[in-house]
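Inverse folding, one chain.
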């Protein structure tokens, strides 16, 4: 059984991740915790954190809160406010190349460039999520009945990608060829951006709340079923006409969080009963990382070398698993 360094917090863990070699946990109460070697607590947001994501481009943690602020936290614990939506709640954040950051509040999406200049992109309805393309300054937003694509450095009209229903999340594939949205209707939808070809990814018994791209972006791993559902994206057509891999199947409990290993074809899978498995793609071999806990796993994140897996739960249970330890 791998070794676990356990931590206990007071409430919901929004994000568990690594900044450099340091495990970091963002909590819904507005604090960011650095627990290794003696806990440090940073007060990031008044009123609470609503969204937290690792900015892989800048190696920092981005958080948005009820106080209308966007905060960047570095591995050394230095925090800086990099955006503001006034009195509106910041409900989504995303990092991009060349220091760009996107965020959303109400019906407006914002893009801040590396020089600190911020542009607003109003919408007719609520902006549910934002994403920045891996190359260039291109903004994607999730909205009702589809997604919108903006060239954020220009005044050009957005490209509207339509699909009926509520789209609550959005992200690009790492190569920038595909855009995928999470739908309220227990499904994913996608577009091949070169020609707008649609991709439907359906069959989930619950809403997808967690997703992760595998090493080299061969697969997109998702929660929302009693197994981790991995859609193939290695070819030109993505998952169109192909079935997904189903890993870590457990008929009695749902997958609530997924995190693909940074270098190997392996995925960490967290469940509603607190259990965590690591499962290999090739032969579906499973390794038990955590037997279970008191609440569903809400978030997981690997360190850069793929030796340690940080996790957090809805009830505040958290820890770091050393997968190489006997």
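Residues assigned per position:
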């Amino acid at each position: 059984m791998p070794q676990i360094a356990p931590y206990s917090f007071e409430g919901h863990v929004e994000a568990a991740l690594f900044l450099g070699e340091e495990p970091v946990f963002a909590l819904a109460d507005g604090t960011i915790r650095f627990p290794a070697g003696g806990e440090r607590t940073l007060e990031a947001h008044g009123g609470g954190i609503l969204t937290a994501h690792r900015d892989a481009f800048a190696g920092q943690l981005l958080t948005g809160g009820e106080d209308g602020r966007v905060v960047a936290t570095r591995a050394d614990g230095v925090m800086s406010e990099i955006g503001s939506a006034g009195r509106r709640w910041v409900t989504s954040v995303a990092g991009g190349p060349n220091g760009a950051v996107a965020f959303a509040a109400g019906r407006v999406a914002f893009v801040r460039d590396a020089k600190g200049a911020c542009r607003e992109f109003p919408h007719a309805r609520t902006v549910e999520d934002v994403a920045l393309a891996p190359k260039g300054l291109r903004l994607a937003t999730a909205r009702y009945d589809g997604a919108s694509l903006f060239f954020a450095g220009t005044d050009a009209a957005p490209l509207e990608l339509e699909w009926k229903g509520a789209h609550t999340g959005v992200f690009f594939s790492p190569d920038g060829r595909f855009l995928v949205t999470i739908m309220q209707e227990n499904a994913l939808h996608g577009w091949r951006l070169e020609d707008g070809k649609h991709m439907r990814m359906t069959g989930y018994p619950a809403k997808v709340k967690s997703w992760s791209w595998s090493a080299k972006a061969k697969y997109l791993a998702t929660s929302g079923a009693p197994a981790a559902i991995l859609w193939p994206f290695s070819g030109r057509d993505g998952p169109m006409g192909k079935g997904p891999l189903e890993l870590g199947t457990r008929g009695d409990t749902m997958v609530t969080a997924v995190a693909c290993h940074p270098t190997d074809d392996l995925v960490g899978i967290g469940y509603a009963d607190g259990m965590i498995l690591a499962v290999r793609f090739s032969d579906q071999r499973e390794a038990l990382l955590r037997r279970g806990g008191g609440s569903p796993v809400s978030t997981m994140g690997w360190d850069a070398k793929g030796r340690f897996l940080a996790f957090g739960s809805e009830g505040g249970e958290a820890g770091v698993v050393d997968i190489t330890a006997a």
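The mean pLDDT is 96. DSSP finds no helices and 30 strands in the chain.
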